[in-house]
Design brief:
By secondary structure, the protein is an alpha+beta fold. It is built from four helices and eleven strands. The protein has an eleven-stranded antiparallel β-sheet with strand order 1-3-4-5-2-8-11-10-9-7-6. A hairpin with an 8-residue loop joins strand 6 and strand 7. It starts with a strand and ends with a helix.
């Protein structure tokens, strides 16, 4: 068993860890594609336990409650569509919905309020001429996220693949509000700081409150670097706020 802390820098929602980042943490030390399942919000700035059980990584919170688990993939990874050009991906990023609407401004992956080197600023938008929901952008990993040899850790690559799947469904359906439940992913080639990459995401299937998406990372020549299959859980309507007593009585 080892101790791990997810710092506030790596948030998704304001008070919870970024789903893709934590799934990437759960993938470390495992060969081949990994399926990571998130079972509870991830506490920030709190010491958590990370242990191995039956060949899987398990993240534990208070009273050893399971927060997430990652093990050998149980889900086949989808073949991604062809990579768009760098120019087309850059143009798509200019249509990112978060640039004109408040979505998740502090999110480690897609927060428009985060500075380069603090957040990833992966900001996908609708790809021109493509089916609705096929979104793209470019991403140049900052050196702050690289090891001494210039490569970027799996947890950061998985984080970069996270939110684009959400935005694929936002573009397709025009609605907001979903949480990452399961992510199957693999990094197939080293990702390096300072190089410009292409991020692509697309909706696959809607099943009740589940929205399934695929995401992929390509180099500038269109070679696949990493990919994922995601299950998002759409949030239900918020409960109505109870009216003050006087108002309820017709005052």
């Amino acid at each position: 068993m080892s101790k791990i802390t997810i710092g506030r820098q790596f948030c998704g929602p304001p008070n919870s860890g970024n789903g893709g980042y934590v799934c990437g943490v759960l993938s470390k030390g495992l060969d081949g594609p990994v399926t990571a399942v998130l079972r509870a919000p991830i506490p920030l700035d709190s010491e958590l336990n990370l242990e191995t059980r039956g060949g899987a990584n398990v993240l534990l919170g208070e009273a050893d409650a399971v927060i997430g688990q990652g093990g050998p993939a149980t889900q086949a990874l989808p073949e991604p569509p062809p990579a768009p050009s760098l120019e087309a991906a850059r143009a798509a990023a200019e249509r990112h919905i978060g640039l004109t609407n408040r979505v998740h401004p502090i999110c480690f992956t897609c927060g428009t309020g985060r500075e380069e080197g603090d957040g990833l600023r992966v900001l996908p938008g609708q790809l021109e001429g493509a089916e609705t929901g096929l979104v793209a952008c470019t991403w140049t990993p900052h050196r702050n996220f690289a090891a001494a040899d210039g490569t970027v850790g799996a947890e950061v690559v998985w984080a970069a693949l996270d939110c684009p799947g959400y935005f694929a469904w936002v573009e397709k359906e025009g609605r907001h509000g979903a949480l990452l439940g399961t992510m199957t992913g693999e990094v197939v080639a080293p990702v390096r700081a300072g190089e410009e990459y292409i991020v692509l995401a697309w909706p696959i299937l809607k099943d009740g409150r589940k929205e399934i998406a695929g995401t992929a990372l390509f180099d500038a020549q269109g070679r696949l670097m990493a990919r994922s299959h995601q299950v998002w859980i759409v949030l239900g309507p918020r409960p109505a706020t109870a009216a003050p007593a006087a108002e309820a009585a017709g005052a």
